[in-house]
Design a protein that fits this description.
The complex is a heterodimer. Chain A is α/β, with parallel strands linked by helices. Chain A contains 15 helices and 18 strands. In chain A, about 35% of the residues lie in helices and about 25% in strands.
Chain lengths: ~450, ~375
């Protein structure tokens, strides 16, 4: 053994290529005993490849993998298996062996050639099975287990191997939320109590944030971030690596970050969904919650939405914020000011059509109507019907008059949100190519 | 309910790895051994020359114990020259065939069980994979080439082995290079088998030494054997079977897929290569003296899995005994079906084996790891 090394696992500038493709490029990371390190990243970012390379199942083109100081590629297979245990995401069901026999397979690296299991092996198997609460059911056949039970039994097999390093590839795949929490809680506890080092590939960031001591983020085979969940998770990283807009919040109880993904906004609609392509831009005049159904629906249908003018802290303003749409916003309890009015004009200029929600109108937002009246004939305008009750016009009839004028000047009243989508599709055919933008 | 980790394991618990399976081994093993021996003894009574069953059995035990009491071989009512003829028939003709049935059955079952294990394919069998026909072709070449009879006995198994190497290599490559699932592997084997059988039939038509019937190799026979042939088959099967048995733990791990097996310290390719080589040798030795006998290697391991579970440390040795029983029963049927004619033993095995194969093909639900690794 080389010089003492505090880290159980030390990966240094690891590079793996498949054919011409670089699966891992210069990845470095280390993990200590007692620690749960979550390896995360989008699909195809190299999580599984990294675990396989650490296990020695893939020969790297460069770099080194050391476990407790020993260089893994140079170790005999059996020596590797005494240091590193690996559980793949999926395993062939194989023969219907009993749970006991299955977990006993984990003892192979500790058995002399051609020997059978001895008392120490039986004890290790029992310990492992008790850790996952399966000792009482050890004579059941593995083929009869549910997905969650199979994950737990696989964990027991890996534990029975009694290695300082555990590599678990998506141990929560195919599990419901309760079993996901259960599985990671167990791994976390085991790592801590038995002073093992667990490196777990996880694509669920909330689980990673909750259970991991440290998170390592891979993207396109590169390590792009590493540190505690607090250090690593940021809106910028989520946008860069996963291409998502997310609300990142703090759990007041655990003090850990958790995130709420928001629908991806600047992506073209999924192939096969009919929608104007590239996206047509639709401006929505809303406020007071009148856009709560309309705005997300238009975003989902693949339109690029802008909103305004709305007041800050208005529920439609918060909705627009969450969705990350362009918005003209005014300070609360003030009438729309000239700069905001100008902003609204630029949004109207940029859009292909306007939809007016049944927005309750007072002096604060009356300017929306008057500005829009100037755009009648220049942009197609759809108006959702106003409710008879409750009253919506708090301007002494000024808003009602402006609305009627809009209808006279070519604005069309459209029955509901579904009709709005149909109306937009009819007016904004696929040929609307003016707002082309790079696709994500 | 959980004991703290590291608590001493109660002795009884530690030793109680009750195998998952319908029958515990302490019942199953004696039952199989006793059944096998009873079948062996009883089968001495069957043959084209009618000899009373009691007499054949007493001759058998008399010979088995070394024959210290000559008069005890036959009952007093039997004339001594008659007894000598019967003894000759029982001990030099019938019993060698029965022992060959045991040895060849064991050889085919060990081969079939091991192949099923390494390929994770419940349909693997030396006959279905073409190993048997390849070996038969090799052995038949010795006759066709008119080799000096003095060398035939030694060359026969070698030639069979060489003949078996070709399909062995093909199925090895087919199984490791393409991951197309169990049925494709078997169909490749069947294609090979058909191909070799066609060549064998062609040889049969042009056979210069017309006295040796190559029909023998096409459907299998245990009739023309001797104690020395038996010795060879028993010896090779025992030695190579033991070597395979020592790899049973690795075959167990292969059930988890090659990568998991490797993560546990097994070289999957090496285990598969060794197993294909050894099963080829074991199959070839049996085939050299029995010809092509199908399905025994398919049926016997499945029966054992049904009775005793799926640990290959159990499947291989118990499968060997079970293979002996299956082939012994088939031979009894072959002898007793249309007396005094002895039909080729491959006929009764096919009568049991073909429906069994179809059953396995249709029982697609949770087949032991079969359709998984496609």
């Amino acid at each position: 053994m080389s010089a003492p090394d505090a880290a159980t696992l030390r990966v240094d500038r690891l590079t793996v290529r498949y054919g011409g493709r670089t699966a891992l490029a210069d990845v470095s990371l280390s993990a200590r005993s007692g620690e749960l390190v979550a390896l995360t990243g989008p699909n195809g970012s190299g999580k599984s490849t990294l675990l396989r390379a650490v296990m020695g199942l893939i020969a790297p083109q460069g770099g080194s993998v050391r476990v407790e100081g020993a260089n893994v590629p140079e170790l005999e297979l059996i020596e590797r298996a005494r240091r590193v245990a690996w559980a793949p995401q999926e395993e062939p069901v194989g023969e219907n062996v009993s749970i006991l026999e299955y977990v006993r397979f984990g003892r192979h690296p500790h058995l002399a050639p051609f020997a059978n299991e001895g008392p120490a092996d039986h004890a290790a198997v029992e310990r492992a099975l008790r850790r996952v609460d399966f000792w009482e059911e050890r004579s059941r056949g593995v083929a009869e287990l549910s997905g969650g039970e199979r994950q737990r039994v696989r964990l027991a097999r890996v534990l029975a191997q009694e290695t300082p390093l555990l590599l678990l590839d998506e141990p929560t795949a195919f599990l419901d939320i309760g079993h996901q929490l259960d599985a990671l809680e167990r791994v976390h506890t085991i790592a801590r109590q038995e002073r093992r080092c667990a490196v777990v590939a996880l694509h669920d960031l909330n689980l990673a944030a909750r259970f991991a001591d440290r998170i390592v983020v891979l993207s396109h085979g590169r390590c792009v971030a590493s540190g505690t969940p607090k250090e690593v998770l940021s809106p910028e990283l989520l946008a860069d690596v996963w291409g998502i807009v997310a609300d990142l919040r703090w759990d007041p109880v655990t003090g850990l970050p958790y995130l709420l993904p928001v629908l991806p906004m600047d992506r073209p609609p999924l192939a096969g969904t009919v929608g104007p392509r590239p996206m047509a831009r639709v401006h929505v005049i809303a406020g007071g919650g009148s856009g709560s159904e309309l705005i997300p629906r238009l975003a989902r249908e693949g339109f690029e939405v802008s909103v305004g003018a709305v007041h800050l802290f208005d529920s439609d303003a918060e909705l627009g914020e969450r969705l990350g749409v362009a918005m003209a916003t005014e300070m609360p309890f003030t009438a729309i000011s000239p700069p905001v009015a100008h902003h609204l004009e630029t949004l109207l200029e940029a859009c292909d059509a306007v939809v007016v929600a049944p927005v309750p109108t007072g002096s604060g937002n009356l300017a929306n109507w008057s500005i829009l009246a100037g755009w009648a004939g220049r942009r197609p305008i759809a108006l959702l019907p106003m409710p008879r009750e409750p009253a919506w016009d708090f301007t002494g009839g000024a808003a009602t008059r402006l609305r009627e004028e809009l209808l006279r000047l070519g604005g069309e009243e459209v029955g509901g949100v579904d009709d709005v989508v149909r109306w937009l599709r009819a007016r904004l055919p696929d040929a609307a190519t003016r707002s082309s933008r790079p696709s994500g | 309910m959980n004991a703290p980790p590291g608590a001493p394991v109660p002795r009884e618990e530690a030793v109680s790895p009750r195998r998952w399976g319908p029958l515990p081994l302490r019942v199953l093993v004696p039952a199989i051994v006793v059944g096998l021996f009873a079948l062996l003894v009883g089968s001495t009574a069957l043959g084209s020359v009618p000899i009373p069953a009691g007499t054949t059995i007493s001759i058998f035990f008399y010979q088995l114990t070394g024959g210290f009491v000559p008069s005890a071989a036959c009952p007093g009512s039997v004339a001594s020259h008659q007894c000598a003829i019967w003894t000759e028939i029982v001990w030099q003709a019938r019993v060698p065939s029965l022992v060959l049935a045991l040895a060849a059955g064991a050889a085919l079952a060990i081969s079939g069980g091991s192949l099923q294990g390494i390929f994770r394919n419940p349909l693997a069998d030396p006959f279905l994979l073409g190993l048997s026909s390849g070996a038969a072709l090799g052995a038949a070449a010795i006759f066709v080439l008119d080799v000096d009879p003095a060398h035939q006995a030694t060359l026969l198994p070698l030639a069979a082995f060489l003949g078996g190497i070709v399909p062995g290599a093909v199925i090895y490559l087919a199984a490791t290079l393409s991951r197309r699932g169990p049925t494709v592997l078997i169909l490749s084997g069947v294609a090979l088998s058909t191909f070799f059988s066609a060549i064998l039939s062609a040889m049969l038509l042009y056979n210069p030494s017309s006295d040796v019937s190559l029909n023998f190799w096409l459907l299998g026979s245990l009739g023309a054997t001797s104690w020395s042939d038996d010795g060879l088959v028993v010896g090779v099967t025992l030695v190579l079977g033991t070597v395979l048995y020592l790899r049973a733990r690795e075959i167990n791990l292969l059930q988890l897929g090659p990568e998991v097996a490797q993560s546990l310290g097994v070289r999957p390719q090496r285990t598969i290569q060794w197993t294909v080589l050894l099963t080829t040798a074991i199959t070839a030795t049996a085939v050299a003296f029995t010809g092509i006998i199908g399905f025994v290697g398919l049926i016997a391991p499945h029966l054992v899995r049904r009775l005793a579970g799926v640990d290959y440390r159990i499947v291989l040795p118990l499968g060997a005994l079970m293979g002996g029983i299956v082939l012994l029963v088939a031979w009894d049927v072959a002898v007793a079906a249309i007396p005094p004619i002895v039909i080729p033993v491959g006929i009764p095995t096919a009568f049991i084996g073909a429906p069994f194969l179809i059953y396995l093909l249709y029982r697609r639900r949770a087949p032991g790891g079969s359709a998984i690794d496609t």
